[in-house]
Description:
The chain has one helix at about 35-40, and strands at about 20-25, 30-35, 120-125, 130, 140-145, 150, 160-165, 175, 195-205, 205-215. By secondary structure, it is mostly beta strands. Among the domains are: about 20-50, no CATH class; about 120-215, Jelly Rolls (Sandwich). The strands form 3 sheets. The protein has a 5-stranded mixed β-sheet with strand order 3-5-7-9-10, with no helix packed on it. The chain has a 3-stranded parallel β-sheet with strand order 4-6-8, with no helix packed on it. The longest helix has 9 residues, at about 35-40.
Amino acid sequence: MANTKISAMTAGSALGGTEVAPFVQSAANVKITATQIKTFAVGAGSVSVASGKTVTVSNTLTLAGTDSTTMTFPATSASVARTDAGQTFTGVQVMTSASLISPAITGSAGTVNGGFTITSNNLGTLTTGTTTLAVTNGPQQYMVNGGAHTLAAPIADGNFVLYILNNGSAGTITWSGFTVGASPGDALTTTNTSKFFVSIMRVNSISTYIVKALQ
C-alpha cells in the first residue's frame, strides 16, 4: 500500500465526513476529516449544488431570509427589483389579489386598458352633526339620510359619486364648504325611499357637487 500510486488506488464513493486525509498544520503532520474540510470551505451550514450546475459569485454578499423558503428567479437573465427605491419596469406586470397601499400615484400621461371593479364604501346612516366627505373613501360611496345633518367638503382634491337613500326620518342636508351655482342639479328631497346620485369633485381646493334624482 505504501508504494501504491494515488492514480492506482480504488475510486472512492460519496464522502460521509469521517474519511481522513493527511495535512501539514503548524509544521506537523496531521489528519483532517472530510467534515473538517467542508466546515472550512462553507462554514457550519451546508451548500448543495445539483450535478452539472455552476454557481458564480463575483461580489461579497450576505443572504438573509426565513429557513425552508424557496425563491424562484425568472426563466431568463434579469435584474432583481428592490423594495426600498423606485423601480422602472419595462415589461407588462400582472398582479394577482394586489392592493395599492400608498395613495399617491404620479407619472406622465398614459393609457389604462381594461376595466376594474370597485367596492363601494358605506358611510352608514347619517342622522345629525357634520360629516366631512373624503376622496380617500373611494370613488363610489353610499349613505342613508336618516335625519337633518351637514356634509362638509373634502379636504383633498379628487372626485367621487355619493349615493344617498332616504329613510322615513330623512332630513334636510346642509352642504358646507362647497361652491355651487343657483341650481346644483335636481332637488334633494326628504321623501322616504327616494334615491339620489351626487357627483362630488374638488379641484385646486374648490369643491362643488351636482345632484341627480333617481325617481
